[in-house]
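Hey L., structure's done. Input below.
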Amino acid sequence: MDAASSRAARGIPRDDNDDRNARIDNIREQHMNSDQIKGKWKQLKGEVKTAWGKLTDDDLDVIDGNKDSLVGKLQELYGETKEVISHKVEAFMATAKEKWGDAKDKANEIASEVTLKAGVAIDHAKDKISGAKEDVSEVASEAADKVKNAASDAVDAVKS
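Output:
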C-alpha cells in the first residue's frame, strides 16, 4: 500500500505530495527493474536473443544489462517507437521475473525436501550410532567380565 492509500484508509485527505511520492516510487521501481536486468544479464542474454533475434552477441555485450541501451538498440533494429519497445521489454521482464519466482519457489521446495531428508538421514545415523554404542558397551562389559573371571581363575590357580 502506498502512502496516499494508507492516508486515505485512515481518513486523511490526499495532498499534493501524493503525486510526487507516487512518481518517486515509480522511479525507484524502474531503477530496481534496471538493476535487476543488470544483475541477471548473464542469465537473460540467451532469452533476450531468442526474443529479439536481430540482436547479435556483440550487441548484447555492449548493452550489458542496461535497459535503456536495450530499448535503444531494439528501436534501431526493429524500427518501432520507444513506447512500444519499452512496453515489450517490460512484458519480457515481467515474464522473466515470473520464471525467476517460479524457479526460486522450486529451489526452495527442493531445499526443504533435501533438508527434511537430511534430517531423517541424520536421525537414522544417530540411531545406528546409539545402537552401535550400546553394542560396543555390551561387548566391552562382557570382555571385562571374561578378563575378571580369567584373572580370578589365574589367582585361584596360583593359590592352589
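The two ends are 98 Å apart (CA to CA). The first helix runs from residue 3 to 9.

-- N.
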